[in-house]
Fold this protein.
Amino acid sequence: MVYRVQENVFDKFFKHRESLIRQFKKGDISKREFLEEHYNFIQQLNLKPFQRRIDSFEKGLYNYQYFNMLAKYCYMKSKDIKLQQKHPRLAEKFLEDSNYYYYQKDKSTLKLLEFLEFKNVEAYFVKVKSPGLKDKLFEIVLKDYENVIFHSKNTWLLERLQEEGVFLEGKKKSVIDNYINEKY
């Protein structure tokens, strides 16, 4: 008897995301296209974040990616000049939504780090081109997992990383420098 393993929504989400990352790294799509494609995919699958406890790495990572994508997409839309001119209230709403999703992303990050007990975590400020992010944006690397990198500029999250002794002094080049320094 042959058993067929059905791909779950988790698998679809992460496979699609990895595909978009490969396309971005090869230069096939821009950062803006990456964000739009990922956002549309989330909408198409009608994905929602986990509301209860984070009791697995996968759930924590999924929630981070979910909120991060929505935050970036809303921020990108809020900065659209045509939208600002024709529908300033809608642009303002996108910015409010972006701030909300960034806050939720940071809460998700903390829940995952607490689940992992801050083990094999390294955080530091990153070198950026954007004057608005200089001395604010920091990177969190989960060393036990390949290519798992979080970013934030949230001060309470920074303080917690410092309290846990995982925040390094100085600045480093981001592990994904090309991505964080490309405008969208």
Q: What stands out?
A: The chain has two domains: 7-115, 116-184. Residues 7-115 form one domain. Helices lie at 9-26, 31-45, 57-78, 81-86, 88-115, 155-163, 177-180.
